[in-house]
Amino acid sequence: MPLLMFIEAGEPHRDDPEPAREPWLLTALHWVLPWPAAIVWLCVASRYADGWLGVGLIYLAIGIAAWRGLKALPADGLGQDRQ
User: Fold this and answer.
1) Would the pTM of this model clear 0.70, i.e. be above it?
2) How far apart are alpha carbons 58 and 79 in whole angstroms?
3) Within a domain: residue 80?
4) What SS3 string covers 13-71?
């Protein structure tokens, strides 16, 4: 059974809004310590911290990694003529 796929080759939208900007504190932190390095350092610190502090640090590292990963994914799907 053949698989048939249609791809629309229409004109791309030209009136795209500007992407949302991050708060200034996150921008300053990004210049000082990039996100992958912050995640790695939080994981390392969680191994040396005792008790709930170590648990909190690893959960913070997981939360930052998930947040940055979700921000990298396109949230608009195929709504802007991109596939």
Assistant:
1) no
2) 36
3) no
4) CCCCCCCCCCCHHHHHHHHHCCHHHHHHHHHHHHHHCCCHHHHHHHHHHHHHHHHHHHH
State the residue range of the domain holding 67. 25-72
Residue 78 lies in a domain: no
How far apart CA 25 and CA 29 sit, in angstroms, is 6
Q: How many domains does the chain have?
A: 1
Q: In tens digits, what is the pLDDT along the chain, a chain of 83 residues?
A: 566 666 666 666 566 566 667 787 777 777 777 888 889 999 999 999 999 999 999 999 999 999 888 877 776 665 555 55
Residue 59 half-sphere exposure toward CB, CA atoms < 13 A: 6
Cα 27 from chain centre: 14
